[in-house]
Amino acid sequence: MGSGDYDPAGRHLAVYVEPVGPVAADVYVANLVPVAQAFLPEVFKRFPQLESFAVCQEPPPGVDDRAEPRTWTQVLTTRQQASTVDYGRLDLGGLLSAAYLPPSRLVLAVVPEVATSPLWVRAVSQLSTTPSATSSTTAPQPGR
Description:
This protein is α+β, with helices and mostly antiparallel strands. It contains 6 helices and 4 strands, in the order E-H-H-E-E-H-H-E-H-H. It has a 4-stranded mixed sheet with strand order 1-2-3-4.
């Protein structure tokens, strides 16, 4: 099966969003929570057999125009993990805590272009100085 193919036995759903124009890296950081809240936790209610879900932000137009570009951010969670996060009250600090502080309740990955943005650097520095708080600031691995 190729990317984007439908698998009736599939238990994972990934959604990719792309900005319509140039966007600063801080905008990707600021959009992490609203983009996650647009789908979570409702996606698991709507699709009862779904086991995991990811929402990814793609690069701005003109940066990587391949059919399947490298994602710039990824929020990945399982049904069980999602049930432990209050997405209605989530803010950036809460998202980072859910990803980087034990127990891990989701995977959050960003590319270096986003990880060096002032908003990301400030948010991570306010979270913790432990290695786990900064170790996932690399290109998202699952998905594209």
